[in-house]
Amino acid sequence: MFEFLKSKKQNPRRTVVVALHGFGRRRTDEFLPLKNFLAEKKIELILPELFNPRNPQDVDPQKWIQRAEEVVDELSAQNADVILIGFSMGGVIAAHLAAVKPVKKLILLAPAFNYINVGNAADLITGWFSSPNKKEQPDQYPPLPADFTSVFMNVVDLLKQDAVLVDCPVMILHGTEDETIAVSSSRKIYKKIPAAQKGLILLEGVGHAILDDPVYASMALHTIAAFIDGQIHF
Q1: Beta bridge partners of 18
Q2: pLDDT at 140
Q3: What would the pLDDT profile of 45-78 be if each residue is shown by its tens digit?
Q4: Distance between CA 170 and CA 227 in Å, rounded?
Q5: Which residue, among 94, 95, 151, 86, has the nearest Cα to 118 in the 3D structure?
Q6: In sequence order, which residues have a C-beta less than 8 Å from that of residue 104 and are 6 or more positions away?
Q7: DSSP state letters, 155-198
Q8: Helices H / strands E in the chain, number of each
Q9: What is the full per-residue pLDDT of the chain (234 aa) written as tens digits?
Q10: How far is 124 from 94, CA to CA, in rounded Å?
Q11: Where do the domains of the chain lie?
């Protein structure tokens, strides 16, 4: 019996973080700071691509959602503990998945439950990181097809109501100077989420790209890791 208990202790459940990107040209590159930070802490991270900007025919909102669902379903079939992180549009999808799938924790970064500037979501973040080297590679982040804007809106409209069904622990981070998603959006959705453990952290003066903010990015990354590790409780 004791050998059995010892064996179980040596084989804890696998914990995997799945991060869902927003409606931006950089897609999973939005999470590069997070990817590097969690790699140092030996935390497994999966970054699914939700859409293909080089395929103008990729305009089915259900396909965008399905690409995230398939990752969570596969991990659940492996009995892994899934922690979801969603940025902007990815936050709405992540909340939907947390409502209908076995998710251990949910982290929302400037979730796009109510968008105010779709153009910023697609273009501003890419422009933020322009550099001489990147200008030599103009196709690194190709423009999003025009039809993708309506797909983004459809994804949000299809899923935003599911946040009221989320009962796993939730942490929301939102910048008070977000030029794309008003901070009031997160205040409203925070009140509607029924989870017993939930927290809303407002970052003073921060815009939409929280993980790239020159002042608060480090704090945000440490806060995310602490929540993942169970060091933060609400």
Answers
A1: 46, 84
A2: 83
A3: 999 999 999 999 999 999 999 999 999 999 999 9
A4: 9
A5: 151
A6: 15, 81, 82, 83, 168, 169
A7: HHHHHGGGGGG--S-EEEEEETT-SSB-HHHHHHHHHH---SSE
A8: 9, 6
A9: 455 555 445 557 899 999 999 999 999 999 999 999 999 999 999 999 999 999 999 999 999 999 999 999 999 999 999 999 999 999 999 999 999 999 999 999 999 999 766 555 555 444 333 334 444 444 689 899 999 999 999 999 999 999 999 999 999 999 999 999 999 999 999 999 999 999 999 999 999 999 999 999 999 999 999 999 999 988
A10: 22
A11: 14-228
Q: Is 37 annotated for ligand binding?
A: no
What is the pTM for the complete model shown? 0.88
135 burial level (CB within 10 Å; 0-12, 13-18, 19+): exposed
For 14-228, CATH number out of 3.40.50.1820, 2.60.40.420, 3.40.50.261, 3.40.50.720 equals 3.40.50.1820
From the list 90, 73, 85, 98, the residue with the least C-alpha distance to 193 is 98
Q: Kindly tell me the burial class for residue 73, based on how many C-beta atoms sit within 10 Å of its own C-beta (0-12, 13-18, 19 or more).
A: middle
Q: Encoding tokens for residue 222?
A: 């440490």
Known binding residue 171? Answer is no
Catalytic residues: 88, 178, 208
